[in-house]
Amino acid sequence: MSRVYLSLGSNIGNRQRMISEMLRMLDESPDVRILRASSDYETRPVGMADQPMFVNIAVAIETELDPMELLALCKMIEGRLGRVDRGRWGPREADMDVVFYEDLVADLPELKLPHPETHLRRFVLEPLCEIAPGAVHPVLKKTVKELLSDLGDADYVIKTDEGHKR
Question: Mutual orientation of helices 122-131 and 144-151 as an angle, nearest 10°?
């Protein structure tokens, strides 16, 4: 079993319900075991400011799926939840990113591991720090807690509840 960290987000419709649905669909997959999920965090959109606020969480899972199979599962879940491609930085009904897959480093057209902007995104690091502060970025060799500390206080990220704890 491989330990993987995912980032889930939504900023269209009932955001919390979408997060819950993504978790439910992950949990129903026979190849995935959810270990822990963070609280909800309301976050400012990145790249295209003129859109609704996001809700983001981090999830720790164990899986037998290889990285490409896991990516396919995430894309299937996004599609079932109605995600429409509105281009890079656009609003999203459901968004699932593979942040870390063990200590794997990969640079494929469809998947880059670790996620290439993890260390720059408070909306990823803040929820991830809640559930795995000691997880180490396989390229930068810093913990999630250290990466979060390096960011300072620039981005809007507010913990909104204690939901999804496992």
Answer: 140
